[in-house]
């Protein structure tokens, strides 16, 4: 469909070029832009067009268009909004999905743009009403009804007892206090979300200055707040049964209706099964599902035809008085997942005459001719090949091979050598931002047997359960490993065959030759990775077709060893090959082969020359994450997507799935039943099979199970994360109520984690692990010694004082801040307060290692105990240094940031007369400098430099958190 200048309204030119919201109000049948400061303010007498532009990870832009119709808007104005959305879509290249939003029946997707809610005000342009301005001085008591677990639908109802019921949540907004009335049949999650509306009303209509009260349905007059609430309704009396909602429509749950709109006529389509082939690219179709009416517009339809279809859809619902039905319009090739799921089958790659990139290029060219900036429309630079791991690389790793329904601990020299016919369990203990983290996972080789897989999952689940679900559990398959797996192993070798009895039994029963790797046999390895902290040697078939110009290879037949360098490889690739050779064939001479100049002996070992690829294997890129709430009932998984999610959407009573395409995270709240926690991995597997987003999820997709309060950095990176929220006790409603009422919340009484011994990576390499210099001459024997590249890298990786962080910023992060460096030249006595607190912190490094770590050899145990002593001594020295440094600053002036000063007894969470109207998350800042020093044993400045976890521990101990 061609787009001409005359078809576009000037107000739409240049829109949709960057991530964010753009809103227009219909005035005199024309779209008028609304400034960002007024976004979220809607008037009942107006109609609006809302454009949501989302910048995707692949560099493209996704557009969603909504037209919102107020209950008092005129029919002509509403029709204009519907037509203009078609024009706006044309201006964006014909790829947006368009939604009709009726006041009071908005989609959750639309409401998610304006969290916590929208509260339309009386007034409008076309209706002749005047817009009502909010005036805190002239407050009118109002009653609102709220419902929704993930987004809140808010509607003002008459201020009368008859409006109340047992099923919903009600908010009574009076001049001096806001009451939330919780119907006895409402859920905890709904009550928590409604509190966000209470906070919004307080900030918007009371300038943040009013009291908040919570009233439970059924609580009698003995409760002071309940008595005050019922006093506004003339006293307590039983509530009537809930009457049917006004305008409630019943939608038929029978077969869908498919209608064809062609040349101004609307005709039904007869079909036996709803198939994709029924949709013709030069026509428009209506799929009537009762609650939704989908309008599908063929790619080869004109702009006028699409406008006609839009008008016909509005008329169809108007004639049948279906005011609550959602209209969702889309263009061929950009259908929603929900629409495609209505059909028996849907092709994965429809044959479009206009490709996505061609369409964007044409729109960009059109806007460029208009003198507009088209940078936002062009595809951004591709994502980096290797994703960031977001995990610390200095932790303690243990690996077990599953064998005969049990697990056998591997030595440190063998724990990075996997066999494709076996299953493995690994445990990785590492320091997080404010606490130690634990990852327990299973790895399934491609040729491993089902019995071993079941055993490995069972054993790993018991290990996770023994940590009281504080460990993250992972299920990984060979060939689909996430980057976190590779960086914790750093150097990994995957061999053919297997060593477990289950694998041996399988090949014997099926008459399969055992091709397990032998050091004396013929083997070919492909070397891959992004650096010394992420490199692998994968055994492949020893034939020429296994070669690839983009990789380096190691070929050996007994003690005859060759290295092969592809023409498209880099110096880093060659360095990694040298490192892997030190593991696979240590102390053995090798000859270097460069692509194009191989010796006859090399080709002879591979069975002769043949064609091979030059294309580098590209890691599957992570897509934009999607969050789903999950309910597992009688083996069936029900999911619901949460749009524009935040950390607050993770309710402690529920299970959620974060779908990143390359990985699936199952998040389990602290108050979820233990039986459900044990099914977390099953929930993830069922979700992969369900493939709700129709993204062709592989059955081997990595699955991580995460428990609230133990979220790893590679999960929290998808949120604006506040770890302090996991320290709060109670259900989601109680937590939110404590925050809204300004009283704060005590820490959650969770069992303390056992502190692992961070022995990290060994700084002394075995002889077999020392790198060698590179030699590219086919006949030249490799020379011993470190290459210059390796020497430079080793300086960073082997320093005992540095930590190898694979996450940005790319600076070396130490286990403790520089301000805690011990200074043996200064000594000073500690105050009694800091002595007690420091002692509790010292004990963190002396706690025994988890039971699962104790399976190592006696020599390893002894080393761990010695490391633990050194670690404890180091912590003690650092705390002493802190005290020394702070004592030296005792007489320096303090800056109290201009905040009011309160006594310690009124700032405690258990205070009898607590201070109000303060930031409850920073209670310590309201102490005077002298009292702060007395309680904490240090100045405010020194306290601010401590790690977050240490600050929180001190605050908890002093009842300030």
From TrEMBL:
SUPFAM superfamilies: Actin depolymerizing proteins, C-terminal, gelsolin-like domain of Sec23/24, VHP, Villin headpiece domain. The keyword Cell cycle does not apply. It comes from the Eukaryota. InterPro entries: ADF-H/Gelsolin-like_dom_sf, Gelsolin-like_dom, Gelsolin-like_dom_sf, Villin/Gelsolin, Villin_headpiece, Villin_headpiece_dom_sf. Residues 896-961 form the HP domain. Residues 819-835 have a biased composition (Low complexity). It is found in: Cytoplasm, Cytoskeleton. Residues 760-776, 873-884 have a biased composition (Polar residues). Keywords: Actin capping, Actin-binding, Calcium, Cytoplasm, Cytoskeleton, Repeat. One of its GO terms (cellular component) is actin filament bundle. Its main location: cytoplasm. One of its GO terms (molecular function) is actin filament binding. Residues 744-783, 799-900 are annotated as: Disordered. Residues 852-870 have a biased composition (Basic and acidic residues). SMART domains: GEL, VHP. GO terms for biological process: actin filament capping; actin filament organization; actin filament severing. PANTHER family: VILLIN (PTHR11977), VILLIN-4 (PTHR11977:SF138). Belongs to the villin/gelsolin family. This is HP domain-containing protein.
């Amino acid at each position: 469909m061609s787009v001409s200048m005359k078809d576009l309204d000037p107000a739409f030119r240049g829109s949709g070029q960057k991530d964010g919201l753009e809103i227009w109000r219909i005035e005199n049948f024309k779209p008028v832009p609304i400034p960002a400061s007024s976004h979220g303010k809607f008037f009942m007498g107006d109609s609006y067009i809302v454009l949501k532009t989302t910048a995707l990870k692949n560099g493209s832009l996704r557009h969603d268009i909504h037209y919102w119709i107020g209950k008092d808007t005129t029919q002509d104005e509403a029709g204009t909004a519907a037509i203009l959305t078609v024009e706006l879509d044309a201006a964006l290249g014909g790829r947006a999905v368009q939604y009709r939003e009726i006041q009071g029946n908005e989609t959750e997707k639309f409401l998610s743009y304006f969290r916590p809610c929208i509260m339309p005000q009386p007034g409008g342009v076309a209706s002749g009403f005047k817009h009502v301005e909010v005036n805190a001085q002239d407050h009118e008591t109002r009653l609102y009804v709220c419902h929704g677990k993930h987004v809140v639908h808010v509607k003002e109802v008459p201020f009368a007892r008859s409006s109340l019921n047992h099923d919903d949540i009600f908010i009574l907004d009076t001049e001096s206090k806001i009451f939330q009335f919780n119907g006895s049949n409402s859920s905890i999650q709904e009550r928590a979300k409604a509190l966000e509306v209470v906070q919004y009303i307080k900030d918007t209509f009371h300038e943040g200055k009013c009291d908040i009260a919570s009233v439970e349905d059924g609580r009698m007059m003995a409760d002071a707040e309940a008595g005050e609430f019922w006093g506004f309704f003339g006293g307590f009396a039983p509530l009537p049964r809930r009457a049917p909602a006004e305008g409630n429509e019943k939608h038929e749950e029978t077969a869908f209706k498919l209608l064809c709109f062609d040349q101004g006529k609307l005709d039904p389509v007869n079909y036996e099964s709803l198939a994709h082939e029924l949709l013709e690219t030069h026509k428009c179709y209506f799929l009537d599902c009762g609650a939704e009416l989908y309008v599908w517009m063929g790619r080869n339809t004109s702009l006028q035809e699409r406008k006609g279809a839009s008008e016909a859809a509005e008329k169809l619902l108007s004639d049948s008085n279906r005011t609550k039905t959602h209209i969702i319009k889309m263009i061929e090739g950009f259908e929603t997942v929900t629409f495609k799921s209505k059909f028996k089958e849907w092709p994965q790659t429809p044959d479009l005459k206009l490709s996505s990139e061609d369409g964007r290029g044409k729109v960009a060219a059109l806007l460029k001719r208009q003198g507009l900036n088209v940078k936002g429309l062009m595809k951004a630079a591709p994502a980096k090949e290797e994703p960031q791991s977001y995990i610390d690389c200095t932790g303690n790793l243990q690996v077990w091979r599953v064998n005969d329904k049990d697990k056998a601990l591997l030595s440190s020299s063998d724990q990075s050598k996997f066999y494709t016919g076996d299953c493995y369990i690994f445990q990785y203990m590492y320091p997080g931002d404010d606490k130690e983290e634990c990852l327990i996972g299973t790895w399934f080789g491609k040729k491993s047997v089902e019995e071993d897989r079941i055993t490995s999952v069972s054993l790993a689940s018991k290990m996770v359960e023994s940590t009281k679900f504080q460990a993250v559990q992972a299920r990984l398959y060979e060939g689909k490993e996430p980057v976190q797996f590779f960086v914790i192993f750093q150097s990994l070798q995957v061999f053919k065959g297997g060593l477990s009895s289950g694998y041996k039994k399988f090949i014997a029963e099926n008459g399969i030759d055992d091709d397990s790797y032998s050091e004396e046999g013929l083997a070919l390895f492909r070397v891959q990775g992004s650096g010394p902290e992420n490199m692998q040697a994968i055994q492949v078939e020893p034939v020429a077709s296994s070669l690839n110009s983009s990789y380096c290879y190691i070929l050996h037949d007994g003690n005859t060893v060759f290295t092969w360098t592809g023409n498209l490889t880099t110096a880093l690739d060659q360095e990694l090959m040298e490192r892997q050779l030190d593991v696979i064939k240590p102390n053995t001479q090798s000859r270097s082969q460069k692509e194009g100049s191989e010796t006859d002996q090399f080709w002879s070992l591979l069975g002769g020359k043949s064609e091979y690829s030059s294309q580098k294997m590209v890691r599957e890129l992570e897509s934009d994450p999607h969050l789903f709430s999950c309910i597992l009932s009688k083996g069936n998984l029900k999911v619901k997507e949460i749009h524009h999610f935040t950390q607050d959407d993770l309710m402690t009573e529920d299970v959620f799935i974060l779908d990143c395409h390359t990985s699936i995270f199952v998040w389990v709240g602290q108050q979820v039943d233990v039986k459900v926690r044990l099914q977390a991995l099953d929930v993830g597997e069922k979700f992969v099979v369900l493939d709700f987003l129709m993204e062709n999820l592989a059955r081997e997709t990595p699955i991580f199970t995460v428990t609230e309060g133990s979220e790893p950095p590679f999960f929290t990176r998808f949120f604006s994360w506040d770890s302090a929220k996991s320290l709060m006790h109670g259900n989601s409603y109680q937590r939110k109520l404590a925050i809204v009422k300004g009283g704060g919340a005590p820490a959650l009484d969770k069992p303390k984690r056992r502190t692992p011994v961070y022995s990290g990576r060994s700084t002394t390499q075995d002889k077999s692990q020392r790198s060698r210099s590179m030699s590219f001459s086919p006949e030249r024997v490799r020379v011993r010694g470190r290459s210059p590249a390796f020497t430079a890298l080793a300086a960073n990786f082997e320093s005992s004082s540095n930590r190898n962080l694979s996450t940005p910023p790319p600076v070396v992060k130490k286990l403790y801040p520089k301000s805690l460096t011990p200074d043996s030249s200064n000594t000073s006595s500690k105050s009694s307060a800091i002595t007690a607190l420091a002692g509790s912190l010292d004990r963190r490094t002396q706690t025994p290692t988890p039971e699962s770590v104790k399976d190592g050899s006696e020599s390893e145990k002894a080393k761990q105990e010695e490391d633990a002593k050194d670690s404890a001594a180091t912590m003690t020295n650092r705390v002493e240094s802190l005290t020394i440094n702070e004592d030296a600053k005792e007489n320096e002036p303090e800056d109290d940031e201009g905040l009011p000063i309160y006594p310690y007894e009124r700032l405690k969470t258990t205070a009898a007369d607590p201070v109000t109207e303060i930031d409850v998350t920073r209670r310590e800042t309201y102490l005077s400098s002298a009292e702060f020093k007395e309680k904490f044993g240090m100045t405010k400045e020194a306290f601010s430099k401590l790690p977050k976890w240490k600050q929180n521990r001190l605050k908890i101990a002093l009842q300030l958190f």
